[in-house]
Amino acid sequence: MNPVKLLVEPWVFDIPSVSNAAARLGWDARFAQGWQHVRDIVLKVAPYIVAGVGVSAWSVSGAPVGDNDDISALAGLAAVECDPAC
Fold first, then answer.
1. 69 Cβ neighbours under 8 A, 6+ residues apart
2. How far apart are CA 17 and CA 76, in angstroms?
3. Which domain holds residue 76?
4. In the predicted model, is pLDDT for residue 83 greater than 80?
5. What is the Cα–Cα distance from 66 to 79, expressed in whole angstroms?
6. Of the candidates 41, 70, 69, which has an alpha carbon nearest to the alpha carbon of residue 82?
7. What is the number of domains present in the chain?
């Protein structure tokens, strides 16, 4: 009995292998595949980034100055009043 087969899960050996010819890609194909994978990831993550930036922008500038006392008290900070020049 092969000792490796005792240590490896059976599903690992069931993974289909790729022929050597198919594994050899040129630089153009590698960059195209890489670009496609990056694009897929960015498209999946982008809505959460936009929502986070929107919530942050609203919480910083969307609340009136007088309402910041409650938020500052929760954070343990003194409320900072802004003069009209800022």
1. 79
2. 59
3. 43-86
4. no
5. 9
6. 69
7. 1
């993974």: which residue's tokens?
15
Q: SS3 of 1, please?
A: coil
Q: Tell me: pLDDT of 46 over 80.
A: yes
- Mean pLDDT, the chain, rounded, equals 77
Q: Take residue 32 and report the two structure tokens written for it.
A: 């195209």
| Separation between Cα atoms, residue 61 and residue 53, nearest integer Å | 12
In the chain the first and final C-alpha atoms are separated, in Å, by 77
The answer to the question of residue 35 being in a domain is no
The verdict on residue 17 lying in a domain is no
Structural domain includes residue 23: no
Give me the pLDDT at residue 36, please. Answer: 94
pTM above threshold 0.90 = no
Please give the structure tokens belonging to residue 50.
């936009």
